[in-house]
Design a protein that fits this description.
Blueprint lengths: L1 E5 L6 H15 L5 E4 L9 H4 L14 H6 L7 E4 L7 H5 L5 E4 L2 E3 L3 E6 L2 E6 L5 H4 L13 H4 L5 H7 L8 E4 L12 H7 L4 H5 L6 H10 L3 E4 L6 E6 L10 E6 L10 E5 L10 E3 L1 H9 L29 H10 L34 H10 L4 H10 L4 H6 L39 H14 L10 H7 L23 E2 L6 E2 L59 H4 L4 H6 L1
Parallel strand pairs: 1-2, 2-3, 3-5, 7-8, 8-9, 9-11
Antiparallel strand pairs: 1-12, 4-5, 6-7, 6-13, 10-11, 14-15
Helix pairs in contact: 11-12
């Protein structure tokens, strides 16, 4: 089975599917599944575009609406998670996941499903400490604050995932697990993305919540995006009491642009006696059912129950009886129904509606799943709360916020799980974080003054190893470039420091996407890891030029190139 993994999608579905089609034709293979690691941008119409956290002048419709309207159908089954540039009102309709278009499935705030026996999980959004303990209280039309807080991951969703006990094959997050950069070639990462140095050196880059999930779930593969760079790592976990040591292969990929490494294909052995389509996961459904009463739609800080003597139940890992009850609720049918339905009109290029307002519709898929399992439709509950603040739903939404009830399932007075986290206060310059338009304009001017001095191609230890292997370029109709990764040796952490272990036996990486340039091959590739590489341009981040000042220059926030017609790398090189 071949699974294609894509970094940040940014609504470029036509280009992504075109690249996969080219790969299939050139290699004579068939891609079974596409995984997208966030910034999917499932924008249906102009109203949805107003719910996406990007400056107005960079909002473009892209191509998702064609798949939503039925004009096109995804040629490959696609599963995705949310990032920090999404049509949030659309995704909020599906808190437990569902079809956003035929053959395109969203995992929800957090979710686990099965495909041909492979267990795939994910968590949407990015981590920000100041919103982590809140409920999902946002509702369209969003204000300046909620437009961004709506995509911040919440502790309740991480808590649900931490109840999982059965092995996970693949897990997806948009931002990286904190510390994962220590298990790959850190120097190469910093050569590509110089602005990350401060956060790497202070160990503040990435999500502490994702790091906690990585340690708990220990999936075979973990895929991420967000930082717009290809980076591979291998982490060997300390053995759990119940089993042997496990290794996670981490891969982050770039955004969908020409000359970027945004696609990778991973091969999995076929698993016999497994269903053909997508299936619900009984362990995950049992967790959703048992934790339903913990969910909030208010902004008051709250912590899930812990083993501190204050709660009737704090362990929600499902028993066999609970999973059997879920199977009974589903009438023994775990296949995810093909029940996509449009809830708002699709964008019509012949009849644009620039003054369209954001929609706030309930989704029949969510309604059906909630009725089957007895779950709460958070979106519908919040809508009811806004219409009737004093009603029964309003009381239920905030019943345990004070944490004083002895039988409460929540703990408002307990400290945050990450009391020392500084993600909301970081002063490092992160080009992947969109703030207000004024900052975009100001930093654009700063980079023009700097003059793009960050074009440095000096190679470190990682690059010298890469030169030992052969190079091959592939040309696609759309000019997309990607190469195969070199997997680092697995590392593990202990009290004496990180120790490099012997290389593991890994499936050979496959070509992920076509590249531009002349074709050529070499037979001198490394024996232990067959690879194909391409010469790549380095990123344009500027380095400090004032000697001895220690001042980091301001760097242009580069996400705007996603919404521009021309790659800024090309502009700077011209």
């Amino acid at each position: 089975m071949r699974i294609a993994v894509e970094g940040c999608c940014h609504g470029e579905l036509d280009k992504i599917y075109e690249t996969i089609g080219y790969l299939e034709k050139k290699e004579g293979v068939k891609v079974d599944l596409l995984l997208c690691c966030g910034d999917f941008q499932a924008v249906r119409n102009e109203g949805d575009m107003k719910c996406m956290a990007v400056p107005a002048k960079y909002r473009t419709m892209q191509t998702f609406y064609k798949y939503y309207s039925g004009e096109k159908k995804a040629p490959v089954l696609t599963i995705f998670i949310g990032g920090n540039h999404e049509a949030s009102n659309h995704l909020q309709e599906l808190p437990y996941g569902g079809w956003v278009a035929p053959n395109i499935y969203y995992l929800g705030y957090a979710g686990i499903i099965r495909y041909k026996g492979i267990r795939i999980g994910g968590a949407s959004g990015i981590f920000k400490s100041h919103d982590y303990r809140k409920g999902h209280y946002e509702f369209p039309p969003y204000g300046p604050d909620t437009l961004r807080s709506v995509y911040h991951i919440r502790n309740i969703d991480v808590y649900k995932l931490k109840q999982i006990q059965m092995p996970i094959d693949i897990f997806m997050s948009h931002d990286w697990p904190r510390g994962i950069y220590n298990y790959g070639c850190t120097q190469e990462l910093l050569r590509k993305k110089k602005f990350l140095r401060q956060e790497v050196e202070t160990n503040t880059l990435g999500s502490p919540a994702a790091a906690e999930l990585l340690e708990h779930l220990q999936p075979s593969y973990w895929f991420s995006a967000h930082l717009h760079v290809k980076f591979a790592a291998m982490m060997q976990h300390a053995p759990k009491a119940s089993g042997s040591s496990r290794t996670t292969k981490f891969l982050s990929l770039d955004k969908c642009l020409p000359h970027r490494e945004f696609l990778q294909v991973v091969e999995f052995p076929d698993r016999t006696d497994s269903a053909e389509g997508l299936e619900y996961d009984p362990e995950w459904l049992a967790i959703l059912k048992s934790t339903n009463g913990l969910q909030k739609t208010t902004p008051q800080p709250w912590n899930p129950p812990m083993n501190n003597g204050l709660h009737q139940r704090w362990n929600f890992s499902p028993s066999e009886a609970e999973m059997m009850q879920v199977l009974d609720d589903m009438n023994g049918e775990l296949a995810i129904p093909d029940n996509f339905s449009r809830t708002v009109p699709a964008y019509d290029p012949a009849n644009p509606q620039p003054r369209a307002v954001p929609s706030c519709s309930t989704n029949p898929q969510t309604t059906e799943l909630c009725a089957t399992l007895g779950l709460t439709d958070l979106y519908a509950q919040k809508a009811q709360l806004l219409l009737d603040p004093g009603g029964a739903d309003g009381a239920m939404a905030g019943e345990n916020d004070d944490g004083d009830d002895a039988h409460s399932t929540g703990s408002a007075d307990e400290p945050s799980e990450y009391p020392t986290d500084t993600s909301g206060l970081s002063n490092s310059c992160n080009p992947d974080e969109i703030t207000i338009e004024d900052e975009w304009e100001e930093e654009e001017k700063v980079e023009e003054d700097v003059g793009g001095e960050g074009k440095q191609v000096a190679a470190g230890a990682c690059d010298s190893k890469k030169r030992e292997a052969g190079e091959e370029d592939l040309l696609s109709p759309s000019g997309h470039v990607s190469g195969r990764m070199v997997l680092p040796e697995p590392k593990s952490g202990d009290s004496t420091g990180r120790v490099a272990l012997s290389p593991m036996s890994l499936p050979p990486p496959t070509k992920s996407a076509p590249a531009g340039g002349e074709e050529g091959a070499s037979d001198d590739a490394e024996e232990e890891t067959p690879v194909v590489r391409i010469p790549k341009r380095t990123s344009d981040e500027s380095e400090a030029t004032a000697g001895g000042t220690g001042v980091t220059p301001r760097i242009k926030r580069r996400n705007q190139v996603i919404y521009a017609a021309v790659d800024d790398d090309d502009e700077n090189e011209s």
